[in-house]
Design a protein that fits this description.
Layout: H1 10-21, H2 25-38, E1 43-49, E2 55-60, H3 100-107, E3 109-115, E4 122-128, E5 131-133, E6 144-146, E7 151-157, H4 164-169, H5 173-190, E8 195-200, E9 208-209, H6 216-224, H7 226-229, E10 232-239, E11 244-251, E12 261-266, E13 269-270, H8 274-284, E14 295-302, E15 307-308, E16 319-320, H9 323-340, E17 368-370, E18 376-378, E19 413-416, E20 423-426, E21 433-436, E22 446-449
Parallel strand pairs: 1-8, 12-14
Antiparallel strand pairs: 1-2, 2-7, 3-4, 3-7, 4-5, 4-6, 8-9, 10-11, 11-14, 12-13, 15-16, 17-18, 19-20, 20-21, 21-22
Helix pairs in contact: 1-3, 2-5, 5-6, 8-9
């Protein structure tokens, strides 16, 4: 019999959608960072525990959330970013669907403390499955007043506690922490006027820390190292016909890495663009050694009506008009910048050891010991522990000794003995020596004088 179609329960639908939007802790961090930036924050502090699986806390100093809006905070498709579908054509904010916080509340324990500029105090609320729940058993579910600074603090605990399959797949806290640090690092470079801090909960040090007074080049130096910052080139181009502009920083031909580092922001969104990445790799393949890549930070600004941001659940991809033409123009600008900076190249060489430098003995017979001063002492080196390194030092001819051959007259001729058993050289002068060999006995040669 055919199976009947039935409507899924709302809790099941929301949990399925949450697993698609929040795939790992780094996705939750990305969504909440974008909410902080939409709120006008100038400071974002993120604290994690066990790679964000046990605890994920993010605090900002933005505009905060009004008390009246807290009941709708974790409800799906509830947002302050747009009201009609046509608003997507002029969207300038990060969020627009109102699904991120709702999805998190369906797969984790979610709580928030927020305060606006005109509020006398902060308010704390707790959510489960998108709805307000009491902070204490038996109490009302309404937000409770508490002490707090201006801004919002969101705490996410036990992420994927009710999705055991997803939780089991994310069993490496170190890897998840590295992905969170990568997201925060990229947003810190693009938003250099915002101070970002990432730290592990309960530990004094910080894994990522930037200041709001630094520019993009200084932020790159702080987060990616001085080796990259020393080789940066500034690139900028625009086109009124295609209605785009791009600004960024790329490394010159003196720097290369084994892993490509591309920070691409389209209308301030951290996204992936396969066509642009392929063009960038093809461009640098003519300047860098094989299997070497570059560092590139590109901020692409397009007309909002030319960008479709609603193509991926995690908003990690976007589609835009005239993509091929825009990528070609950007690649041409990058190529021009690289060619103008290749008048000099830096090559790193390794100094070879001198031919007469003392070598360390190797092998079991070459015992080593440490003296009181910590210097390495070597014992006797045996021949079978040594390896010939220079064929010009000695040849096999030195081991062969040849006896001097007696001088013979040019008129000497070979003669046979009477019995045919041997041979001799008889001097034509009549009084020269004769060399004779006895074949039968193998005796040594004898010298005879002719009479």
């Amino acid at each position: 019999a055919a199976k009947r179609i039935r409507r899924l329960e709302e809790n099941v639908v929301n949990r399925i959608a949450a697993g698609e939007i929040i795939q790992r802790p780094a996705n939750a961090v990305k969504e909440m960072i974008e909410n902080c930036l939409d709120a006008g924050a100038t400071s974002v502090v993120v604290a994690v525990k066990s790679g964000g699986l046990k605890l994920l806390q993010i605090q900002d100093n933005g505009s905060g959330i009004a008390k009246e809006d807290l009941p709708l905070l974790c409800e799906r498709f509830a947002t302050s970013k747009l009201s009609t579908y046509e608003d997507l054509n002029s969207l300038t904010t990060f969020g627009f669907r109102g699904e991120a916080l709702a999805s998190i509340s369906h797969v984790a324990h979610f709580s928030v403390i927020t305060r606006t500029a005109d509020s006398p105090c902060a308010y704390k609320a707790q959510y489960s499955d998108g709805k307000l729940v009491p902070l204490q058993p038996g109490a009302a579910a309404d937000p409770k007043p508490c002490a707090g600074n201006r801004g919002t603090q969101i705490t996410v605990e036990d992420l994927f506690f009710n999705v055991p399959t997803r939780r089991a797949a994310l069993k490496n806290p170190g890897e998840e922490h590295a992905k969170i640090a990568d997201v925060i690092t990229k947003y810190a470079v693009h938003n250099s006027s915002v101070a970002f801090t990432l730290k592990k909960h309960g530990e004094p040090g910080c894994d990522v820390h930037t200041t709001p007074s630094a520019n993009k080049a200084d932020t790159i130096k702080t987060l990616y190292g001085a080796a990259i910052a020393a080789e940066l080139l500034e690139v900028s181009t625009s086109d009124d016909t295609l209605r785009f502009s791009v600004n960024g920083l790329i490394t010159n031909a003196n720097y290369s890495t084994k892993r490509a580092i591309l920070l691409l922001f389209i209308n301030n969104r951290l996204v992936h663009c396969v066509s642009l990445k392929k063009s960038l790799d093809a461009l640098y393949s003519t300047h860098l050694p094989k299997h070497s890549f570059c560092f590139a930070y590109l901020a692409l600004t397009l007309a909002p009506e030319n960008v479709d941001v609603n193509v991926h659940p995690t908003k990690s991809e976007v589609h835009f008009l005239h993509e091929d033409a825009i990528v070609e123009r950007i690649t041409a600008a990058l190529s021009s910048t690289l060619l103008s900076a290749t008048s000099s190249r830096t090559f790193y060489t390794q100094t070879t050891l001198a031919a007469d430098a003392p070598s360390r003995p190797a092998g079991k017979a070459a015992s080593r010991a440490e003296d009181d001063g910590g210097e390495l002492l070597s014992q006797r080196s045996y021949a079978y522990d040594m390896v010939r390194t220079d064929g010009r030092a000695q040849t096999l001819d030195a081991f062969l000794r040849t006896a001097p051959r007696p001088a013979l007259s040019q008129s000497a001729r070979p003669v046979l003995d009477d019995d045919g058993a041997g041979s001799a050289l008889l001097a034509a002068a009549g009084d020269g020596p004769v060399v004779s060999t006895d074949r039968g006995t193998g005796a040594a040669p004898a010298l005879f004088s002719s009479t």
